[in-house]
Amino acid sequence: MTLPARIGAVLAAGWTALVAGAIPAVAQPETSSALRACTPGDYPPYSIRDDAGGYRGVDVDLARGFAALLGRPIEFVPVTWATLQTDFAERTCDVAVGGISDLPSRRAFADFSITYGTDGKAPVTHRANGAAYSTVAEINRPEVRVIANRGGTNEDFARKHFPDAQLTLWPDNLTIFGEIEQGRADVFVTDSVEGRYRVRQHADLQVLHPEAPFDSFGKVLLVRKNDPVLAAMLDAYLTTRLATGEVDRLFDQWIGPNATHR
To answer: Which of 61, 124, 159, 245 is deepest in the core (most CB within 10 A)?
Structure first.
């Protein structure tokens, strides 16, 4: 994978060890402070808050590894999808993680890491419905009850593609699957990776054609603006994790054929 130009600039300044995965703690005043990683914590397998108040997930593991590489402790800061833009600045996030899609609107308030994965929207519905909601046209009908979590790309997708359906906006991404399971909604279109994970917890639900989603987009981590060194270090860190297969192994633990994480 070709490193972005900003990584090359940092490497030229003496950060060659970064790519090898052996980075000493950076000699900057803030390195003794915690790396603040803001996350909604409701989007497994990227980031999910557990009953004890901690966080788990692919992005959470990546953020922990990055903080360890910098020699800094990590602090996860709760935010919401609906208020991500204001929260990112007001809560002084260094990075944001949790299944964040590469959207132009988000570049207005944060810089992006390199893309570490791709995903796309796929429908989740009750198994009793069979393949009834496999296409956008089948979903975009007046009698179909679509549900979407408020404030993120799922709401944007639903509003754009299902204007004729009955749309319910749900306040969180944790209990929304129960609405479909209990028959109060027909279909939820979400990231296929999340769908593949969630149906493991909800045996009555299915995710339709996750291998061929409706669209495709990159997944990134957000970085605070105007910090090219931090951004370059994060890019190089992710590059090494991709090159060693670590990112694939993390996903396999959550949604692979022998997944161990629940």
So the answer is: 124
Contact 131, 153 (CB under 8 A): no
Residue type, 170: W
Cβ 259 vs Cβ 36: under 8 Å: no
Q: Are 65 and 74 in contact, with CB atoms under 8 Å apart? A: no
Q: Work out the pLDDT band at 166, boundaries 50, 70, 90.
A: very high
pLDDT of residue 20: 41
pTM of the model: 0.82
Q: CB-hemisphere CA count at 13 Å for 226?
A: 3
Interatomic CA distance for residues 81 and 153, integer angstroms: 9
Determine the 3-state secondary structure of 62 from DSSP: helix
Mean pLDDT (whole number) for 10-24: 40
Domains, the chain, with CATH or none = 5-118+217-255 (3.40.190.10), 121-207 (3.40.190.10)
Residues 6+ apart with CB under 8 A from 229: 10, 26, 28
How far is C-alpha 71 from the chain's CA centre?
A: 24
